[in-house]
Write a structure and sequence with these properties.
Radius of gyration of chain A: 25 Å
Strand order of the largest sheet of chain B: 13-12-9-10-11-16-17
Strand content of chain A: 15-25%
Number of helices of chain A: 19
Helix content of chain A: 25-40%
Oligomer: heterodimer
Strand order of the largest sheet of chain A: 14-13-10-11-12-15-16
Shape of chain B: globular
Distance between the termini of chain A: 47 Å
Largest sheet of chain B: 7 strands, antiparallel
Structural class of chain A: alpha+beta
Helix content of chain B: 25-40%
Radius of gyration of chain B: 24 Å
Structural class of chain B: alpha/beta
Amino acid sequence: MPKRTDISRILLIGSGPIVIGQAAEFDYSGTQGAKALKEEGYEVILVNSNPATIMTDPEVADKTYIEPLITPVIEKIIERERPDALLPTLGGQTALNLAVDLYEKGILDKYNVKMIGANYEAIKKAEDRELFKEAMEKIGLQMPKSAVVKSVAEAMEIIQWIGFPVIIRPSFTLGGTGGSIAYNIDEFYPKVKAGLEASPVHEVLLEESVIGWKEFEMEVMRDKNDNCVIICSIENLDPMGVHTGDSITIAPAMTLTDKEYQMLRDYSIAVIREIGVETGGSNVQFSQNPETGQFYVIEMNPRVSRSSALASKATGFPIAKIAAKLAVGYTLDELPNDITKETPASFEPTIDYVVTKIPRFDFAKFPETDPTLTTMMKSVGEVMAIGRTFKESIHKAVRSLELGRYGLYIGLEKEDDETVKEKIVTPNADRLWYIAEGFRRGWTVEEIHQLSHIDRWFLHQIKEIIDFEKELSEKTLATITDEELEKAKQWGFSDRELARLLKTTEERVREKRMKVSYKVVDTCAAEFRAFTPYYYSSYEKPFGIVKEDGTVELVFDTENLEEK
Amino acid sequence: MKKGKIIILGSGPNRIGQGIEFDYACVHCVWALKEEGYEAVMVNCNPETVSTDYDTSDKLFFEPIVYEDVLNIIESEKPDGVVVQFGGQTPLKLAVPLQNAGVKILGTSPESIDIAEDRERFRELIIRLGLKQPESGIARSKEEAVLMAEKIGYPVLVRPSYVLGGRAMRLVYDTAELLQYIEEAVLVTEDKPLLIDRFLEDAIELDVDAVSDGEDVLVGAVMEHIEEAGIHSGDSATCIPPYTLSDEIMYEVKRQTRELAKALNVKGLMNVQYAVKDNQIYVIEVNPRASRTVPFVSKAVGYPLAKIASKVIVGRKLRDIVPEVFSIKEAHPATDFRDRSFSRYSIKEVVFPWNRFPEVDPLLGPEMKSTGEVMGIDEDFGMAFYKSQAAAGSVLPEKGNVFISVADRDKPSVLTVAKKLVELGFTIYATSGTHRFFENSDVPSVRVSKLSEERPNVVDRIRNGEIHMVINTPSGKRERSDAYFIRRAAVEHKIPYFTTVRAAQAAVEAINSFKNRQLSVKPLQEMI
């Protein structure tokens, strides 16, 4: 099907200033979207108040408005530019909220502007708690049990159905203040009472607790012919209870069985269809009971999200660009994959490496604040790393953070056991390092799992790193074997960390250790030839050498590596 | 055939103080180098960025920006040079180690960067150029700190030497506060000395971004901070062109900037911060690299500074890149890129994460806390400020009640603000002290009770929606006073609030403009 010809001018709304929870990823998506639409010959009118963005560079769009993102201003722009369509799905929650407001105030109708990408009904269905719940029930997916109550008496009745533990969220309080969790009926009564008092409308939401459950995200795309593809699965290392923006996340999901993965795939496609996102990308979040394997749907974003940015970079699949093209009428099978040129965008990406994202926090700037990680996002940035294994990937992510940390050791040996335990139980920015410390103290995977509820697979990986760290620390650069050094590099140990363990300098380790190898991010696990020069390193054999033309050549003979 | 291969090091994870602005600069560098015929190789580890889009650069390495991984890439790619000046501190930290490993750093030399960052060497440079700096000193013990502060004269800005970015920096007004700071917050020892700087009270702060090719220096813009000295430059609203400075001061600031750029042999971008007090110009700091204001300046004056600087780095001359700029007969006092007729105000405002951190006092200070920025553009200063506030989430009221409570030293200057508000039809609310002061100055105001007095008190009134704007300047003490609860209530109820008199003055001008003019919009492409 050709692109739409009934529209020629498209209004794109950006996400405004960088705030916690809505950051640079929407510059990436807006820029990609604007470029893609221009490529197709549409005239792009862009509005964003944030001057520090590439998308507001005068070359990116045809008309660039650096103006406040408030309804009266957008109306003025619509009045002046008379766009045919509004694409609200690339500018985060800000753009989506504005689109809803413009629609509800009749402004879109007045100027005959069509919403493309996601329509009003779909946005409402995804964002309105009750409508979303109904939609999920309709397709047979479960959600945590929840109900809104206005009195203690009502709450005492509802709790019989929801059960414990239960989360109490007062309505309309800032940043979830007054929220709590109750584990038994004795706690429940005073906490509900306090919650009702904290709420200005005397109302609380009671919700079945899924704290400690595993958390997964699926990035799904759909075109107007109802083709759906899964771009990427993402697993949160931190169990439910920590905002996904504050969690360490891994792509692809590591601990799902194939059967479970296929279930999530089907569920995600069912969700995007039922919500009615006609074209574009969505992000669906699930939680899984680690004991029974049962899945709950947590929420869905009917737009490009922070996770889409991560999924794009993790797979090489440009979600925002494709979403923009789908919005103007293309279908997934019509759009080529830039990387392979041969395959269409309807090929689901396959990845043969592990991607780790770790958030970056700035609590030192706000010493008065509680650094516990909760369902309210607090991180200000993030890093992503690519490695051949989880161990290599997480090590690379740790040193990307620029916290002066080059491994899983940050000198916690002076902390007493109680503190270490507490820091493993309560989610915080340093939890990964406390877990490593726990293993150094000889704690078992089972013990740390009980404290943190982090999946045992991840804990085993960390434990293996720490066990090997212990072995390494008993060696010196002179006594370590080539095989051991090679294994250390393949497990992601940095030169600097090895220098510490082997009591030498980074330069010395560098001289002695194996050379690095480069690989291509190709969306297809090397099934097709890749044309995009997007690389990551790994200490792996055979060696991948980046050639002048951008391709990677595999070299088995390490003797002649220098000449290559 | 490409002219050569250049690696650009990115800015790593976003954090407060190093955000998206640096990714913007890196992307511009990549674009410029591609335009110039070079192969541009990008290294970054931040998935939220445009620089890590696979079609931005010729090659993209998604890797940690630390010595080991960067050197690996350099050994593999064998570039003709590496660019470190666009990604903020992240790549800058690697400049010297990479140079020691035999890597060619393009643009301003690591040596010049070191002069700008080393306190002693920088002081020598300032003296040599005949410029001024606020008095300062280093104390290695508590006793020495007290003597030093007395010699310099209060108020002083104090901070430990080993932390960067304004962390743990404090403004202290007397010996008692200084001692309290030393005892509570920092340890002063021989190897962890305390840095003490004279604080220029009520000085106006300026930021200047310039680009230099070693021969010519072009000033992108002289920016005036809306908030007075003492507020981190990254947290202050900023205006292009300056709105209270004389042309003479601006020309002199531009001259000093050129002197500094030449003395440091800057090839590429440079940012200088100045303070102006009693018509004296003081150099606060120099950063010979891309600053966070580069995108803002580029959009305000209509020239992409980072792109121009990147071309300079690979050897092109400014006269050849932007010849039209050199034929301007009379440059604007605030920018070399425009002539005198340039008449448009661009105001940058910042946003803070206060709503995420309910325990934090939403006050500005010497430590940067903002996460992002917005820009308001208009021919009229007031309208530009109005737009910048609206963009930052604070739509100024057209009518209603304004609560004013200010420190004693701000009382005389807040008077004009109050009078103007009354003229505009607002009702002033004030607690007893300020109310009495207004009464004696013939400004009508309604007395409201403090938190300790009968209810409804001022916070109740904010919560009830009776107050539409708050002007509250801190008294210098940091305890949890009434002021804290007032500010918190304003944040929680999304009521515009201002904690400096200069910002309040700008707000009043903005309200005035909004009431008298039409809100108008215009795309960048139509701005001349």
